[in-house]
Amino acid sequence: MTGWCMLAWLCLVSTPLARAAEIAGVTFADRYQTGETTLVLNGVGLLRYRIFIKAYVAALYLGEGVRPEAVLSNVPKRLELEYFWSIAGPDFGKAAEKVLADNFSPDVIAPLRSRLERLNTLYQNVKPGDRYALTYIPGVGMELALNGTPKGTIEGADFATAYFAIWLGNKPIDASMKAQLLKSS
Fold first, then answer.
1. What's the burial of 43, exposed, middle or buried (CB within 10 Å: 0-12/13-18/19+)?
2. Which one, of 59, 105, 114, lies nearest residue 82 by Cα?
3. Which domains does the chain have, with CATH numbers?
4. In terms of pTM, does the model score above 0.85?
5. What would the pLDDT profile of 115-154 be if each residue is shown by its tens digit?
6. How far apart, in Å, do the first and last CA atoms of the chain sit?
7. How far is CA 9 from CA 17, 19, 21, 135, 168, in A?
């Protein structure tokens, strides 16, 4: 090899290539761009129902430079969830209510109530392979999207903190999945 060819080859093999993450056969992009904000994949996780049944996989994205321990603060973040089973739209709100009640007192949930009800009306039925995304941008709010189509935005850092706590709070829906999501890649 000539010197130039060797140098070009070394640069090529030593440059990290953008990689997507895969879990349970589902692929997630390594980055997500929303407006001026770049969100970087932090971790992926699998939620199992009754130990053996795969329910869904999730990917957590954080703003560039945001540390995983700051996930519930007023920082840009995104959670994508792809489902292995059909779920009725109203069931999302019922499941969220239970985990929110595990994480927060009624006094904390009370000021969120009207926004929770508004979000619950946005949920639609999903079938296997459908993907919901929750994207929070400070000053904008938390957007709910289904398969890339925005369904609505709910305002407030307090709301985003509470809602992301379903997966990332002190008493998450699944502690193992939380650990996987918060593990820096």
1. buried
2. 59
3. 19-182 (3.50.70.10)
4. yes
5. 999 999 999 999 999 999 999 999 999 999 999 999 999 9
6. 35
7. 14, 20, 26, 39, 42
